[in-house]
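Summarise this fold before class:
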Amino acid sequence: MKFLLTSGGVCNPSISDALVDLLGKPIAEATALFVPTAVHPFPGGGERAWKAIHGQASIPLTQLGWKSLGLLELSALPTIREENWVPAVREADALLVWGGDVLYLTYWLRQSGLADLLPSLSDTVYVGVSAGSIAVTQYNCDAEFDLQFVPDDSDMAQGADRALGLVDFTLYPHLNHPTMEDTDLSDIQKWASGIPVPTYAIDDNTAIKVVDGTVEVVSEGDWQRINP
């Protein structure tokens, strides 16, 4: 796949230009499927999902002027015949994967079968926001936080610190965010010191663009690559 991994969505001209470049066409000519799944475990998750779907969230993603926009709810897919949802995924120009709980998102990416399908989507652009970006990297930097939302007696917590590993690095979003704990660079460096792959710490004005394994940082803000 082609990846545009963001912290705060498509929020500035540089990230928008990167998205258009990956799509190979204007956003107004591109089709997309929106994945809200990651936000459901949080209190008010249903309301947050509704706002994101309708473009009422502060993070720019669904409201970019797509030619068409559909909904892909991962937790529903195991109950649906594959021939009724896989073609829509293959036909979409972009998958827009919302933020929230990384552990919950990676669990349903696997359970739904979408994780197995993603590597075959060579022409599709995967656009992640926060948890949606972390999910395709090597490690889950939010594992400790996510564990508090795991239901009792669920097997979801197994391997909580690992993500899908579709790219060869990991990502720590929201660098220096004023309202989020553990996002100072020193905190991120401490976490990254135990990770055997590079970690990109990115703020909300930065994205990571990946094509055929080649990594490019797109930024109008601050970022840091932390090597193991």
